[in-house]
Amino acid sequence: MSFSAAASARADLVLANARVGLGGAPRQVLIAGGRVAEVRAEPSGVRGAEVVDLQGATLLPGLWDAHVHSVQWAQARRRIDLSGARSAREAAALVAQSPRTPEPVMGFGFRDALWPDRPHKSLLPATHPVVLISNDLHMIWLGPAALALIGRPDHPNGVLRDGECYDALAALPAPPTARLDAWVAEATAAAAELGVVGLRDFEFADNVTDWTRRAGERDVAVRVACSIPRNRLEEAIARGLRTGDPVPGSDGLLEVGPVKIFLDGSLNTRTAYCDDPYPGSAGHGRLEMSPEELAETMALAARHGLHPAVHAIGDLAASIALDAFELVGCPGRIEHAQLVRAGDFPRFARPGLVASVQPAHAPDDREVADDQWRGRTSRAFAYAGLLAAGARLELGSDAPVSPLDPWDGIASAVARTDDERPPWHPEQAIPLRDALAAAAGGRTGVRAGDPADLMVLERDPSLLGPRELRRPAVLGTLLGGRWTHRRGI
């Protein structure tokens, strides 16, 4: 309910009867100039402000998704869902049932690590381009017509991994920019409905330019840290971009993000770089660059004020990344850190280092991890171990690898399961308060001076069971004091 009020202090918006924080007592929260101006124990009138009575709803910091691929997520929402396919032939059959369009047929979400057969171009139609992307984005499976479309008609099997996968995706014809921007806007508006106020975009693109265009053409529902792909590092240096700087003309909504550097592959493609070989092969995964090249690239970025974000999933890759951070001495991020050497946990506590993790991947990948990382899963997706060692965690989704839904990640971090299966390595569960803080960029409360990036929940999350925590009722989201989502208040 909204109503006018008259009296003394200055504010643009007053949130009355708000239970601030987990287990919080009712408070009155004043918002002015896009920031929290005051949190009062005793309510009183405010001249000229809109007053919204939250009627005892819970007010918390808004959530950040620390790892998103915005355009791929926006497109995945419109692609054929292959997540339920139990074999390559079953995935091909799902595609065969789809209607034909002038554009390539696109499927997304398959996981082939436990399939009894293997993807091959011969299983896909030869008459129309078919492009199937794995759930972890590290593998692309192309039919004969799609291979011809990207200039690789003679590829032996149509399956490309890691760097070749990204090159193939870039070579495919893209939808018109205006259509993609509209899809991204829809996806970020949907995220705002879940309490999301910001995201780190790791799209393999010129994100600063793309998001500047989007912010200039329409209201943006979230703040965005615009990452820089490694292949654009020299260009970013020439443009004078520095991590953390606001992007001009974005009204404070956009900032320059880190430089994304791929060090290894992924678990599902068996290319994450590990100390121990994968079962049934002599392979340990693979590095995308040598340790020396990694350190040189990080040092170049750091000299120009750009923080590295190093993709490292396997335990050996994570150790190499930690070595490089110690050598270069710069702040930055390790993205994923899915498998960590026992002796490396304390090394994540170094000042300025963020462990950017995606808890929804743990229940998604538990069977694959039990199979491919057999005997090592006590230190896989080990969030409690990282926290206990003093690491700074930030939670993300890696959308579209998992949905852009922070509650999916929060609930998975707390419960270590997402269905009827018993918790997987429950000793690695983390408390709700820590999960919420890691999902809110480190913010643990609503304090005067903070940006008014807030969410309103119908019920206190600490009172919810695991199922309810996965789908809380978000009544409102504020970004710099403006509503990006509002329902029933």
UniProtKB/TrEMBL annotation:
Gene3D superfamilies: 3.10.310.70, Metal-dependent hydrolases, Urease, subunit C, domain 1. Signal peptide: none annotated. It holds the Pfam family Amidohydro_3. Its EC number is 3.5.-.-. The keyword Hydrolase applies. It comes from the Bacteria. Residues 50-483 form the Amidohydrolase domain. It is an enzyme of class 3 (hydrolase). Keywords: Hydrolase. PANTHER family: IMIDAZOLONEPROPIONASE, PROTEIN LONG AFTER FAR-RED 3. This is Amidohydrolase.
